[in-house]
Amino acid sequence: MSDSSATQPPPIVLYHYPASPYAKRLVWYMQLRGIPYVQCIQPMVMPRPDLTRLGIKYRRIPLLSIGRDVYLDTRLILQKLEAIYPNLPILGAAPGTEQKALERLLEAKVIDGGIFTSAALLLPTDLPAVRDPAFQKDRADYRNGVRMTKELAAALRPEALAEIKAVAALLETTLLADGRDWLLKTSQPSLADIEAVWPLHWLSILPGALPADQVSAKQFPLVFAWIARFQATVSAAAKSRGEKPKVVTGEEAHATITQSAFHEAGGGGVDASEPIVQSHGLRKGQVVELWPTDSGSSHKDVGKLVSLGSGEVVIETGAGVRLHAPRHGFRFHAAGAGGANL
Ligand SMILES: N[C@@H](CCC(=O)N[C@@H](CS)C(=O)NCC(=O)O)C(=O)O
Question: The GST C-terminal domain covers which part of the protein (predicted)?
C-alpha cells in the first residue's frame, strides 16, 4: 500500500516512446482511469541518458515513476496503478473472483505465452524504423546477439501468424462469442481488455502486418469490432480529459523524481521466510544486481536491497531512487566479488 496516496497524489512520470505497444498498456490504463502523468520520451534505441542519470541500467520501455520510486515491467506497474487514486474506479476485477483469474491468465497468455513475441515477428520488415541499421543493431543486443534479417523474419512468419490466428480464434469463439462489448461483460473496458487487446491492436494498425485473407474482420468480426470499440473508447476518454500529458525533458523528470518523497517509504523489508533469502543469505542494505530474465538481461541494475517479498524486489540505486521489479521474470543476486559498484 502506498504511503503517499492518502495525502497529495505523487507525481507520475512515464518513460516511453509512442511506438511501444507495451507502453500503450499504461497510456490506455491511465487515460481510462483519468490518472494524471507527464511523459519523458525516450529514443527507440540505446543509449538512454535520461535513465542513466537515475542510476538505471534496465533497457526496456516503459518505466514509470511514482514519487521517488521507479517501477519496471508493465505487469508490476499496472498493479501499482490500480492501488493509487483510490477515489477513481479501478479497472481490475475484484480479488478472489473468476474474473480476476481470467484477467491474470490473459496477461500470462499474451506475455509469457508468446503472443507478444509472435506479434513482433509479424512487423513488416520494410517499416522505416525496422530497416534502420541502428535499430537492427540495437535489437540484436536486446536479443542476445541475434540479428533479425529479412530471411529469418520470413522463415519465422508462418508460425507466428498461426499463433496470432489461434488467439484471435480463441477470443472470437469464447469470451466475445455472445456479442458482449467487453471481455468480462463490464460496462466499460476493464484491465482484462487491456491485457488481451494490445498485440492485436498493434498489428491491426500496422499496414502489411496481418494478411487480410488470414486475420481480418472477415474471419474474426467480433474481435475486430472489439479492437475498434476499444480504440474509440480510449480516444473518447483521452479527449474528455482535455490536454495531452505534458512532455518533460530528462532533466525535468530527474528533478521531479529526486525532489519527491518515496511513494512507498515504509517498504516491505526483507522477508526472511523467502527461500531465496534463506539460500542466498540476503540482507537489507546489501548491494545486489538485478536483471530481467527474458531479454535485455545483460543490462544489470545495481543497488542496495531495500525490500524483498514474494511479489516484488526493491533496490536503491546510487542516484537515490528506488527501483521496483516484479519477482516473476526477474533475477537478482548479491553483487559479485569482482563486483558491481553503486
Ligand atoms: N516485460 C516487459 C517488456 C517490455 C518490452 O519488451 N518493451 C519493448 C518495447 S515495446 C522494449 O523494451 N524493447 C527494447 C527497447 O526499447 O530497448 C514489460 O512488461 O514492461
Answer: 104-248
What's the distance, CA 206 to chain centroid? 20
Q: Atom 1, ligand 1: which residue's CA is nearest?
A: 73
d(CA 263, CA 250): 20
CA 142 to ligand 1: nearest atom = 14
Instruction: Answer yes or no: do 166 and 287 share one domain.
Output: no
d(CA 9, CA 243): 19
One digit per residue, the tens of pLDDT, for the chain of length 342 reads 444 444 678 999 999 999 999 999 999 999 999 999 999 999 999 999 999 999 999 999 999 999 999 999 999 999 999 999 999 999 999 999 999 999 999 999 999 999 999 999 999 988 888 888 899 888 887 666 777 888 888 999 999 999 999 999 999 999 999 999 999 999 999 999 999 999 999 999 999 999 999 999 999 999 999 999 999 999 999 999 888 999 999 999 999 999 999 999 877 899 999 999 999 999 999 999 999 999 889 999 999 999 999 999 999 999 999 999 999 999 999 997 455 666
Which CATH number is 126's domain given? 1.20.1050.10
Residue of 22, 51, 116 to test ligand 1 pocket, by largest number of atoms within 8 Å of CB: 22
Q: Do both 226 and 292 map to the same domain?
A: no
